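Troubleshooting: if your tokenizer reports a length mismatch, compare your output against this known-good record of 638 residues.
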Amino acid sequence: MPFAFLAVSLFFSFIWFPAVSHSQNNNAARYLAELQQQARTQKLSDQRSWHLLLKYNKKRFGGMESEADGMAFFNSPAGKTDPESELAATLASFFVPLAEIANGEEHPQCNFPARFKWLNEQLAFDPARLQIQECDRLGRWLEILDPVGVTLVFASYFLNNPASMFGHTLMRIDSRRTGGDNNLINYGVNYAAIPDTENAFLYALKGLIGSFEGRFAIFPYYTKVQEYNNWESRDLWEYELKFTEDQLHMMLLHLWELGGTYFDYYYFQENCSYHVLSLLEIANPDLRLKDEFFFSVIPADTVKVVMAQDQLVKQIVYRPAVLNQMNHHRARMDSGERQLLHAIIKGEVTIESARFTGLPTRTQALLLDAYMDYLQYQSMQQVSDQEVKIPRSLLSARSRLRVASDQNEEVTLFSSPPHLGHGTDRVRLGVGHNDREPFLELAYRPAYHDLMAKDVGYDKHSEIIFLDFKLRYYFESERVRLDRANILSITSLNPYDPLFGKTSWRGSLEIDTLRDRDCHYCNSLKAFYGRGLSYRPDFFSPLLLFSFIDLKAELSGHLQRDYRLGGDLEAGAYYDISENLRVKIAGSYHVFIVGERKRFFTTHFESRYALSQNLDVRLELNRFDHNHEGIFSVNYYF
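Known-good structure output:
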């Protein structure tokens, strides 16, 4: 190893310094050799900070490989797989004379300021022997950001976009210039895939196999608030973090280095949350945030990991979506005031009419605040190049009321902090009995949340189930069978709102047991998609009613003609008896009209009692045509 390192050092000395080595300044080459010898002695290429700077985290065939995939990130041609050669090349690059840098390009000291800073701390560069370069662009960038803090931001779940179904994390650089009351004009930092297709299937496939480039971007934070809060109507949870000024400086220098490279984007692993955690580790290498993850890195789980660090989070701020700002006002109204708001929105009542002007001043202010929130949301939904503004007459009417919005009023939480949610992985152990025999059930899924689980930290109106595998051992027949493999199942219940015409929807792709047939636990490949309606009496009612009409397709060699096509009509309800006890009851009528023709009923009853955040017990009673079964299970989340 010492001989190899010395050989690499001499190689780079002659490659990088043809002008220096044969000039009066050939002391630079000797000083480089001294630095490289010192680096070898101190084993800098093995230190965690160096690996973090270069993101060496993948182990393949006993070696290491950087996660960065753009070669502009490296100084050595072998830098992606050889941290020692990258260290030697990096040191050599710092000695390149400024005159040899092409016009419009940055000196390596300015391209890789985080590496320069860290190596200077380790090796104590002698400015008399290594010329320190001025980095004007970097200096102006840091001056604009003027960081005093950093905030981790979680954008809640958005089922209309596959990339945002599990939520999204980004960061905000809090500036000394703006202060704590003007966070919207700070800058945000985001890592995301750069898609090259609008095809949903290709988008999902490329995201799974890492075929998109993932890049960091920096932007005014208010643009993301506009996108998430207003356009997509997603709540934001902001976690203000505690770092020293030097740690923040190091993180930003590394972010500067990342601006010229890309990473292969993997939807479940090297995603937005994974690389955000990498930035936090750069700021403080003692943090080992990514070590908590193996198969998947889900945004809500990364927030939990950050919250678990001692004194890392200073405070948490809830930024409600514009629709939830409106709903906050609506929740304070009585039924008559809500009806009047609907009449104003429909144009049946104007703000100049006696029916409105005769109201108490505070009631008028409440109605106008809700109406302006509604208009703001609707303007964001319009596809137009021109900004749609709230009418001046409405703004004037509100200003004349002289009733200020109470900033100290307690905000209504329409979502809950993601760090309070149960773990996204789940294992399940159950015992049950059907019409023939008893069985033992074992199940595992890596993600994410179902509607029967406690919804603290999750969207209480939706579920996402991914790769849920259930195996059963039947005692009398002594057989192990795959009961179900739920590849992906999504349900979005949008309770009826007279102001918005959103319907509920659901879809699933799974391998399931043909439960309406006596074929000794045979399986079928099943897919369905449905639309429906749901209803909740008020925002926080314990009762949720739902109904769906689904289109279904099943394939199996145990069916007549090997398939059947049809659909079903289902109706049911969820009811929260207490904070920990939830019940569900549902019934459906299935009709298959192509392939194997059949009609039958199913009924389903399920109850869940939560023993803790990550542990619950459930009782299920099911009827499939003429077959019955009951299951008692224990579910643990982690």
